[in-house]
Design goal:
- The model has no long low-confidence stretch (mean pLDDT 91).
- The radius of gyration is 25 Å and the shape is elongated.
- The protein has three helices and no strands.
- By secondary structure, it is mainly α.
- Helix content is 72%, strand content 0%.
- It has helices at 12-18, 21-53, 58-73.
């Protein structure tokens, strides 16, 4: 005999409201573990987009580094 699959509409909001705080925290931790890769990918895509839109020259980076070193160490660094 074959298997029968039935899809039942689920309202996730109703299910979440029925959970205890402890269960909600556990669910959040599990979802964070499951989705971490996708969230990191999205973050890196946003960083790439911003860096393409507002590129920084190597000269600007070097000047910022020199300024920070000067503030940290109180001397001129070449």
């Amino acid at each position: 005999m074959g298997n029968i699959t039935v899809e039942v509409p689920v309202n996730i909001d109703i299910i979440i409201k029925k959970l205890t705080i402890k269960d909600k925290i556990e669910l959040t931790k599990k979802l964070e573990k499951i989705t971490i890769g996708k969230r990191i990918d999205n973050l890196l895509k946003r960083i790439d987009f911003r860096s393409e839109k507002n590129p920084i020259s190597q000269e600007t980076i070097n000047n910022v580094i020199k300024q920070v070193r000067k503030e940290l160490y109180g001397q001129s660094c070449s």
